[in-house]
Structure formats: C-alpha cells, structure tokens
Amino acid sequence: AKINGIIRAYLINISEVETGKLFHFQTNGTETVISGLHPFYTYLCTVAAQTIGAGPYSVPAVIQLPEDAPSSSPNQLTVSSINSTSAILHWVPPSPEHRNGIIRSYLIVLTEEVTQTVFQEQSTKTMLVVKFLHPFYVYSFIIAAVTTKAGPFSNNLTFTTLEDVPSGPPKNLLATVVNSTSAVLTWSPPSMDTQNGLIIGYSVSLTADDDVILRKEIKEREIEFRTLNPFTVYFFTVAAITSAGTGQDSQPYSFLTHEDVPSGPPINITHKELTSTSVTLSWNPPPNSQSNGILQHYIVTVEEETTLSTVVASTNTTHTELAIGSLHPYYVYTFRVAAVTIGTGPFSEKYTVRTLEDAPSGPPQNLSVVTVNSRTLLLSWDPPIPEEQNGIIEQYIVTVSSTEEEDSYQLETNFTELKITELHPHYTYSLTVAAVTIATGPFCEPQTTTMPQDAPTAKPQHPSGIAISSTSIEVSWEPPVSTKQNGFIRFYRIKMVELPTGKVWNVSQTGSYQNKIVTSLHPFYDYNWTVAAETVKVGPYTEFFTTKTLEDVPSGAPLDVSGSQVNSTALIFSWGPPSPEKLNGVLRNYILKILVAESAEEYELETNSTESQLTVTGLHPHYAYTCAVAAVTVGGGPFSKPITTMTPEDAPHAPPQNPFGEALNSSTIFISWTAPVTDKQNGIIRFYKIKLLEVATGKSWTVVQAYDHLEVVISSLHPHYEYEWAIAAETVAIGPFTNTISTMTLEDVPSGPPLIVFTAMDSTSLLLEWNPPNLELQNGVIRSYIVRLIENGNKDISFTLSNYTGQSKHSIIITDLHPHYRYSCAVAAVTTGPGPFSEVKHARTHESIPSGPPHAVQGYALNSSSIVLAWSPPLPEESNGVITAYSVQVLEIETGRVFNYSTNGLLLQLFITSLHPYYKYNCSIAAETTVGKGPSNTVQVVTSQEAPTGTPQNITAVSISTSLTILQWQPPHLKYRNGEIWQYVVSVTEMDTGTDFELFNSATEIQIEGLHPFYTYLFKVAAVTIDRGPFSSTISITLPESSPSAAVNDLKVEVLSSKSVKVSWLPPEKEHWNGIITNYTIYYKRLGPVSGDNFGPNNEVLDTVSIPNTKQTLANDPNPKLVSHPLHHEEVLLEGLEEYFLYEFSVDAATSAGTGEVSLLLAVGMPASVPSGPPRDLEVEALSSTSLQITWNSPALLEQNGVITGYDVKLEHHEKDSSTLYNTVTYSLHLEGLEKYSIHNVSVAAESENGIGPYTDVIQVQTLEDLPGPPRNLTGKIINSTTVFLQWKPPLNPNGNLSEYQVIYYGEDSSQEYKKNFQGNKYLTSFKTELAIKQLSPGLQYSFQVRAKTGAGFGENSTSLVLNIMLEKDHESSSVLTITFASLSGVLCLMILLAVVIIAAVTYFIKKKLRSKHYEVTDSMVIKNRNRDSRSPSTNSDSEKTETPF
C-alpha cells in the first residue's frame, strides 16, 4: 500500500554477527542466492525497496547457517604416559573460525607400529585416556574434530608406552646336575611379545618340599647352586625383570641331585630283646631328607663302658635290626649306628643298654671280723670284683658256726657289714659270706675268731657305810660269789647319789680292797651309795644304802641383802638366809660389816636373833654406806657381796667459793665461781642462784645456773651502769650466799639519732642538713656520721662523713643524682660504733626526657584482622619523669604501608583493626614526658589465620601401581592462603562402587594406597589452615589392571577317553578380575601311575593350555564392567594324555598385568590300557654251563598304562628252531638244566590285565664252558720197538672250546726189578688228534689214555689202549702180530662204533623230549635290580663248528 512507485530493485544489507562485517547486495527479484558466507555463522538481513530512491529497510531477519565439517584439524597434540598400558592424549580444538559448527566429538585413530594394528576411539573432551596398550610399544595417533561430520586429521604424533613387568616367563629351562650338591641352571628369555621392556635381569627361585630355598636376582641367564641337598628333587622357576619390576614366574622345572653319603644318622634306636649276654637292636633309617641316596646297609659299633673296648659290626642288608651276643651280664654297652649309601654317613647318638643280671660268678672280697664285745662280732667285707658281680647286689648271706656248740645258722643283710649279737663269751666261731643278685653266688673262704671275757653276773656282799667328817664317809663290802665273777675282779665301782641335789658320780677301788673312803662331800647331806664288781666289765650293783655327813659352818652368804633410807642420818639393812645347800648346819644369828666410803671407816654389828633386818642411826647426810652380812651355825660363814646405800641429801652448809666478775661489753658482764667445800655440800648441787642489783635504778633479779656450769654471762644490761651480785648453791634446798661484789658495764654506741632536713635543688642534686643526737643518747664521743642514701627505694649509695664533729648544725649538697628519682635519706652518729639512724626523709630530683624505651612490649592477634599491643613504661631509671603519652608506629611488612597512633601516658595497650589475615606487622612504641620524647621499642605481630579463600592449584594424579596413585598439587596463591596450611583434605570417589572417603596429608603430595585395580577414581583437594577452604576442581583417573586376586571357581574335569579330558570352570567373581581377562591357563601335571606312589623323575608339569579372550573362545565378556550375570562355564578339551596316569589339573585367569591365583588342584586318573613299552634294563648272565640268571626292570612309567601283573620271558635256542615261554611276577628268572655251552636268545614282555605289551630287544647269551667228554676211538700203531703212533677223535660233547689234549701212559712188566723202579704215569700234550710217542722201552706192555681240555679244565679220560712193545729180535713176527691185532682191533672198533651210534640216538631222543618241557625255575624270589655284568654272547666261527679246534 506504500510502494509509492515502480520498484526497480531491492537493496539487501547483511551483517555478520560474529565478525561485525557488512555486505551489500542488490537484486531485481524478490529472492536471491548469496554465497561465500561462513558455515554456522549468524547473519542479520534487512531489505529495502528502491523506486526513485531507497525506501525504509525491513525489520532484520536473523539467519543462522547450518553446520559443516571443520576446515582444520585439532592442534598442539601432546601425550603423557600414565602407565605401561595407558596414556593421556591432549589437544587443542581448531580455531573458532575453522570449527564450522558445534564440535560434538573428536575421532582418534591409534596405530600400533609393531603389529600395524589400528584402533579408533571417540572423545567429547580435548583429552582421551587410551588403555589396553602394549607395554613398551611404539604408537602413533591422528585426531579429527567432528561436528556433523569429521574434519581433516592432524599430523601424526608418535610415542612409546612405558615399560612394564614381563607378562611371559623365560623359556627353555634346563638343569644340569654337577654332583650331589651342585647344579647349573640355564634358560632363554621370554618371547618378544611378552618382554614388555628391556630385560635387565632375572629372578630365580629355588624350592624343595614346597619351601623356598632361595630367591635371587641376577643379570645372566645361568646360575650355579653349590649348596644343594644330595638326592633331592628341586624345582626352580625364573622370572624376567625389566625396569618396571619382575614378571611372571616360569612353570617349575624339576631336577634330582646325585647321591651322597647320608648327612644324618639312623634314628629311634631301641632294643627288642635283652638277656644277660645278648641284645637285639632295632632302628629306623635316617629321615628321607638326610638319607642322600639309596641305603645299602648299616654299620653298628658296640662300646663296653667299663673297658671302653669297641667292636664294629656291619649288616649285609638294609634290615634295621641286629642281634649281638657274647656280652657280659649287667654291663653297660653303648651302640651307634651309621647308614651306608655310596659311603658311610654319620653315626647316631649313643644308645645305651645294660644287659640283664645273673648270679655273681665270684665271692665277696676281704672278709674282716672285728670283736665288738664278748657277745658281739662286727663283720665287714667288699663286694665281689665288678666283673664278677653280674648285676646289682641285693643282699649278702652270712653263715655262722660254733665249734663248742657244733651248730650253724645263716643271716641275711643288705649291707657289706653285719653285727652278730647274743654270742657266748669265750666261744670260737667260723664265718663266711656269699653275694646275692637274682641268685646266690659262691661263698668266700671262712674266718675263725674267739670271743673275749664278760662282766660278772653277781653283786658284792654285805655292804655298810659310816660318816667320818662333814665331807667324807667310809663304805665297805665283800666280793661277789666266786662262781659268778666271770673273770678276775680288777675294780669295784661305787656309785654315789647326793640326795638333796640328785647329783650322781662314780668312785673306783682296786679289786684287792673291800672298802673306800669317799671325800669332797657336802656337809650335813644324806648320801645313797651302791657298789659293783668289775672284771672286763662292770657287774650288777648292790641295793642303795644311806649315810649323812657331819655339820659345818655355812659355805654361803645370806641372800638378797638390801638397804633403804630412813632420813638423812639413818638406814635400814635387810637380807635373807643362805641357800639351804650352803647353810651346812642349824642357823643361830648374823654378823653385819659396815664401811663408810667417804671416811673409809669400818665396823661390825652382830644380831642376837635370826631376824633378817637391822636399823643403823647417827649417819652423815648423803654418805655412801657399804654393808655385808654373814650367817652363823657352828661358826660364822662367809660374808655376802657388799651392797652400798646412800643417806638422803640436805641443804649445803657453805657458800660457793672464789666468786669473780668482769664486764664484757656495754651490756654484758661475766661471773664465775667454784663449788662449796665437798664435805659441806650435803648432796648433789643442782643449781647455782646469782642475785643481781642495778645500783642506779634499784632494779634487782635472780639468775639460775645449772650445777655443771660454774660461770654465767649476764646480758641486756645498761651501758656504763654499776651492778652488785652474790651466789648461793642449791641441792634439795638452797645454801648460804657469798659476799656482795660490784661490776661496771662498758661504753656503747649512741642510742639516739641526729635530726635532719632533706630538699631538692635541681634534676641531679639535693641538700642535706642535720643536728647531732641529744647528749644523753650519744653514749660517747661522736667521731663521724654515716649518711644512708637510698635511690628509688632500692639502690644504696650511702657514705660516711668523718670531719663533722661537735654539737653544731651540719649540711652537705649531694650531686650527680638521677633525674626525677625519689631519694630516701637517714643519718647516724658514730662513737665506738654507729648509733641509730634518724627518721628517713624523702626528696625527688626534677624531670628530664626518657632515656630508655617502653619495655615488655608485646603484641597479640585478636583475630585475622585485629591486633592488640601492650607494653610497660620505660624502666624507672630511664623514665626520667612522668610519662604523659606513648607514640605508636605500625609497618605492614608484606606491603610496606605505615600507620601512626598515639595514646595518653596512662594507657599501656592499643587495639588496631582492619588488618589483613596472617600478615606481619612491625610495631614501634616510644614514651614522652613533659620535657620530650624518648627512644622506641619494636615488636612484630602476626594476625590470626582464616580458612583459605583460594583452592589448591595444578592438581595431577599418576598411577604408580594397580593399587597406588600419587596425587600432587600446589598450594593456593599466597594472597588467598590466609594462614599456615598445615593439612590438605583429599576427597576420593570410587566411581565403580559409588564409595566416598576423605584422606588427610600435610604435604602437597599423597600416596593413596589400597585402591582397587581397574577402578575409576575422582579426586579433589582443599587446603586447611584453621578451617577447611574450598575444594578444587575434580580430576579423574582409572587405575591400571592387575592380575586377578582370586582363583576360578567350580573346576571340573570330565574324562572323555583314556587319553582325553574336558576341563571346565567358572570365572572368579568379577570384583576379583582386576582388569580385562586376557586368557585362562590350564595347568595339568602328571603325578604317576594311578595305583602307584613312586612317581620318580616324572613329577613335572608336562604342558599348559592357554585360551585367549576372544568372543569366539570365551563364554563370558572379558571386561568386568560389561560382563553379565550369571557367569557361564568356560571349557577346553585336552588330548594326548598318558593312559593310567594320575593328573592334577588347575586353572588360573590372567589380565594384561599377569596371572592370578591358581585354583585348587583337582586330581583325575586316566583309564588303563595294554603296556606300550617293553621292560627296561634287561640283563642276562650265564651262571654256569647249564644255568642263566635273567633280570630286568619294569617298563617306563609312561609306557606301563596300568598295573603290571607279570612278565613273559621268551627263551630261544640259537641253533635249534625251538623256544620256551616262562611267566613270573618278579623282576628276575633263574634257569637251570640248559644244554652245556649253548647259545640262547632272551627277550621279556610286560603283562597287565589289558594284555601283553611289546617284547624287549633280544639279548643273545651263551652258557659257560664245562669239562669236556672223553675223546673217542683211540687207536695206536707200533712203529718200532721204541715208537708208537696214536690217533683219536674229539669228544662227542666238547662242552666248550677244546684247547689241547693230554696223553697219559705207562709201561709195565711182572719183574720185581721193574716194579721196584716204577715211576708212575707219564703225560704228553698234543694240539692235534694224533701223537707219536718215542723212546719207549722195548718188551714192555704200555697202557694209553687221552683226555681233552676246555676253559673249565681237563675232562674225562678215554678208554685205555694197551700195546705190547716187542723186543728187537721179535721184530720179524711183528707184522703178523700187528695184522692179527689190527684185525681184532678192527672188529672191536666196529662193535664200539655201533654202540656209540645207538647211544647217540637215544641221547638225542631224550634231549628232544626234555626241550619240549619248561625248565624248572629254581629261584622264584630273586632280589630286584641285581647288578651283574652281562656277558655278550660269543660268535661261533667256522673253526668252532668243526670237531677239531686245532
């Protein structure tokens, strides 16, 4: 509606929003195509119609072009290795103008250079973690950005993965056994694709009996072990080492060291049977670990403990017991046993046995007979000599016989002595002893002895007694009846008993007297007495008789004498009578003896009665009186032990002596004296009393002094005063005083101070004025003054003025003082010494500027932005006045800013706010007085910490192992730390399980252990000062794979045939995979025959089967992140196993990191079959000309294929078409009755329940040579009267190689002369079947025989040939005789030949019948593995087949 004309064109304006560029176009139509624009850019388009001019532009239209492929590739490609199988690729996107859209992803093409394998990956980020690479391989990659389609690829970037531990074991393991203790082990490196780096060494592990003997790292591929155990099966494994660590161990390789002598002795030695002369020992072989080989036999040593003789016995077999005889009864024998393999091993510990007991073979020794008394004998002896005891002597038998009584009896004892009692005195006895063990031995030679005399058996007769004096009595008697004296009476024994005391003693008298005076008795005592006669011993005593001695004076003094006080002049003495045994009669009165110690006067007093006390008067006070008392019977007895009693004390009767007084100083006098006269002291002086009077004042007082101090110092007296004094002694009462004595005290120091005036003059001086003390207080002549000046109450700067005397007023100016100090002053006058100081006066000097800074300056942080400063004023000596203000200057160390503050002089602290957290501030403080400002003091204050406001920077994570990651970072920027970072908090998220946990560390690096292999983890870090700051951004990492940490489950083995099985299993639980399963390895180990336990050297791993992780071979996805549940069984078919062998199967899973735990072993036995191999070690030995010994060993274990039930032995005659089969269950066969010197072919086959296996190769053997049979057809021809020519044929049965013939002949006639000179047979040797014998004697008849010889010796003689040698004169008729003899001989020979043919035919028939039967096996139990030398069968030459071997 507003065209307003003809539209001639349209004007188009286009604005490119991203760059601001403007484009102008013109078109005649209402549409146009605009090209050359940028993909995915936004454009604003306005259009205006043009008639005669341009109209208004339209509202802008917003147009965004579609996306396109990027026009350039990503750039700045970088790569960093995480571990040996993964790396992180980084890149920068194309520049924005080249992106041409939204980059949705990146396409990464990765090439493995070694295998030229290409992988493609996509990533939505500018980084990619590439996993599952091969360690130490070279890779290259290119990257393209993808919007709606991919752009161009970048240039190649090449990198090499890190080394890893080898994933395959070394190969071609070999062990070369050098001797019994050393072996050399060699191997080849792992295959190239499993080395995973440069091989820098090998880890060798040696085990035996499942114990690791050694693990060692070496660089070479060979190692020698020199300290192995003999005859031991060892297993060694080898693992290769790269810089990343040690790889997988190889399968164990086993080897057996050679035999050696045993290293240990036989054990458990004991005995089975024991007698008194023999013992049977038994023992166990050394432990297998110490046998070091196959035991051959044992050696036993026998040592007899008594003689230390040693015998060595050797067993010929491996039996572990031995009977040993001809031993000595009850002897200790020590046995030691050693085992023998290739040599003798160590002997066992000693085993000690004692043979059983037997009866002694000898009598006791050294029989001794000792007479004890007339009725007792003591016998002693020694045991039989040790070698004749034959056991433990249990007891001895003693035979006692008497010649007088013609009687005997036996006694038994366990000791080597015996006391025999109740014998008769003077009888003769014969004694002998025998020892007893388990039986009685022989008696020793008898000993004879005669018994001695004995005591009388009757008492003396008619005893009587009479007292002779107070100490003696006479007793008398008559001898006993003579018939009962039993010998000569040599003494009489008198037994005395003192009745009052019970005392008993004996008195003797010679046998020729019948009375005795007994002296030394007690007066006035009754005595019982009895008497007995004595020959060699005392006989019986008479009855007791009583006799009393006469009276005497007392022999003892009165008892318990004591004295007691009545008053100071009277005493009472009392006592008790003497003891009854010392009274010696009737008591009549007492006598007292009294001694005065002080005057040495002595006198006696006698009582007129038997009363036991007496009062004595008229004594001296405090005197000691000694009294003794005696009792009176027929006379006075001894006095008692004196006792001393003292009269009581009284007051002294005299004053002290020698009083003396002296002034010691102005307030003290010294007084001394001596004690009163001794005899007037009347007691013990306890005190002295001094009475004093101060004359000037009339004051009096008394001083008391102890008795042992005879001097006293009286103090606290007034100087220059007169004192009067007197002294008295005191016992129980005071005595008289001495005369009065006067003493004056000495001069003293003044007792009054001067009067002073003290005023200030300026800041450093003071004026002092004073008057002397009052005259009555001066106490002497004033010689000087002491000025005590105290500065500020503590510093003493006192001084003395010596020129200021007299009674006038004095003054002095004191200079060089401290400004504004308070001074205290006092003055004292000095006479003989200083008097008291005056009242203290105070004055202060004027102010000045401070000379020192404030002290004890301290600063504290109130929080992170405020501090408080505190101080003390300057030291008093440095203030120099009143502090009116303090000046504070604050320097911020980190920025250099300065702040100034001021306080009044009363405030000693300042609060400062608006500071930065954890910044350092230097604060300087100075004091001011009214005069000016003094020096300053500085303190540094740090504001408190806050939680950081920044995060840790540059966080990186690197995997060190499958369970260990190192996380590193840098602290927050210094400005944002706000304190001392003492800890970092690491937040960890386990993505695979969703588990979160936190770790804490003080450093900027942490090792995070215990992570799960092949799990992805997220990490973020926060710093901690006094509180935790914000967390950083999150980074992620996936840990490398590890070998599986658990074995497979549900292992099963199904036997398919005698040589094949199917093995199946379930994978481990997926949390134990620890990575992507690369393969499973099936191990199978041949143990030995199903029914056997001797696995021998075949106990090794034969082979393994490995299954790769392809979807074609595995039933489960190998990636634990992708695998589905439930898990399925994996399975594999194994073929080519050995029949009738026991196998152990196990399986392990593996990832790229290595092999996991091997499953539990599963044992399976294969079915049996026919033996596939022949017996081994076949040996055939000719024992004689008609017997063979055949031995062999079982087939190899791998060829037995079941239980061997027996063996078939085939014997073939070499020259005859015949064979014989023998069956046996042993490993040997003994054949007899064979043809002498015959050749045989021998072979053996093993037999099981499934059939007979192959035969061994044939061994040819020939029986031994034997004695040959007799030569045949001996004939002779007389050549002349001295020569005969003999011929014969070889024996029909040579039985060996014929080596020679021997002709035996002799001649004879009937004459006696010839018989006398007959020299016997003659022998000639021939190597042919003919011989000419010369030098015969004509006219004699000769007898000829021939015998053949083989290697076994000469055989049987032929039949005799008799020839008569004619004389020379008969030679003419010799032809006729010869012919006749020849004719006869011809007929005879024809008959013999016919007989030989018949015998040969019969012999051949019999032998043929015998060959058709089995030979008898005469030794069905032959020791296995008999080691005999096989004789190779001889090869018969043509000459051996002829009858004549010459």
Can you describe what's shown?
Helix content is 5%, strand content 47%. With 1446 residues, it is mainly beta. Strands 1, 2, 3, 4 and 5 form a five-stranded antiparallel β-sheet that branches. The protein is flat.
> How would you classify the helix and strand content by structural class?
mainly beta
Head-to-tail CA distance between termini: 158 Å
Largest sheet: 5 strands, antiparallel
- % residues in beta strands: over 45%
Query: Number of DSSP strands?
Result: 104
Low-confidence stretches: 1093-1112, 1369-1385, 1407-1446
Helical element count?
A: 8
The overall pLDDT, averaged over residues, is 85
Radius of gyration: 72 Å
Quick tags:
mainly beta; five-stranded antiparallel sheet; 1446 residues
Can you lay out the helices and strands and say which pair or pack?
Blueprint: E1 9-16, E2 21-27, E3 42-50, E4 54-57, E5 61-64, E6 75-83, E7 86-92, H1 96-99, E8 105-112, E9 117-123, E10 127-130, E11 138-146, E12 157-160, E13 171-177, E14 183-188, E15 201-208, E16 211-218, E17 222-225, E18 233-242, E19 245-246, E20 253-256, E21 267-274, E22 279-284, H2 288-291, E23 297-304, E24 310-314, E25 321-324, E26 332-340, E27 351-354, E28 365-373, E29 376-382, H3 386-389, E30 395-402, E31 407-413, E32 417-420, E33 428-436, E34 440-443, E35 447-450, E36 461-469, E37 472-478, E38 491-498, E39 503-510, E40 515-518, E41 526-534, E42 545-548, E43 559-567, E44 570-576, E45 589-596, E46 601-606, E47 613-616, E48 624-632, E49 636-639, E50 643-646, E51 657-665, E52 668-674, E53 687-694, E54 699-706, E55 711-714, E56 722-730, E57 734-737, E58 741-744, E59 755-760, E60 766-771, E61 784-791, E62 795-796, E63 799-801, E64 810-814, E65 822-830, E66 841-844, E67 854-861, E68 867-874, H4 876-879, E69 885-892, E70 898-904, E71 909-912, E72 920-928, E73 933-942, E74 953-959, E75 965-970, E76 983-990, ...
Antiparallel strand pairs: 1-2, 1-3, 3-4, 3-5, 6-7, 7-10, 8-9, 8-11, 11-12, 13-14, 14-17, 15-16, 15-18, 18-19, 18-20, 21-22, 22-25, 23-24, 23-26, 26-27, 28-29, 29-32, 30-31, 30-33, 33-34, 33-35, 36-37, 37-40, 38-39, 38-41, 41-42, 43-44, 44-47, 45-46, 45-48, 48-49, 48-50, 51-52, 52-55, 53-54, ...
